[in-house]
Amino acid sequence: MYRRPHKKNPYGSPVTKAIVKQNLVSEILNHKIRLYMLDAGEPCAQLMEATGVSIGMVGYAAEVEAAQPGSKFSREDPKLRILRGGLSACQQMLLANRWDPLQATSISMGIDATVELVPLVSPESLAEAMRALS
Asked: Could you give the CA distance from residue 65 to residue 42 in angstroms, rounded to a whole number?
């Protein structure tokens, strides 16, 4: 007896999607905690790189969705603009490799905007962002 092969959803079950998104949010919030544990002038390149990749991935996914017609996002969405500001501050700290506590607020606000955007971004856009940034 012939059975058609099961068509597997490439993005997983809804439970898998929720777990992946929750793990992403947890990882991003861990970056925020580590951010406030740094002392002024301390090397921060590794933390800023990890934080920037996480923020950038969610930002990329939101930008992908904003480019689609009929999207719930626009490029001028306030959360997306705050995310970009946090990403810019991460880049500055990465290049300097010396922690400046004055940048903590910008990066923290960018992280908060990222956490708010994660549930709104589709798993397909997140998967595309992961492929593009890896």
From this structure: 37
Residues across the chain = 134
Q: If we measure between CA atoms, which residue out of 94, 15, 22 comes closest to residue 53? A: 94
What number of other Cβ atoms are within 10 A of residue 6's Cβ? Answer: 6
All structural domains of the chain with their residue ranges: 26-133
What would the pLDDT profile of 29-84 be if each residue is shown by its tens digit? Answer: 999 999 999 999 999 999 999 999 999 999 999 999 988 888 887 888 999 999 99
Model pTM score: 0.85
Q: Beta-carbon neighbour count of residue 20 at 10 Å? A: 17
Please report how the helices 123-133 and 45-67 are oriented relative to each other, as an axis angle in degrees rounded to 10: 130
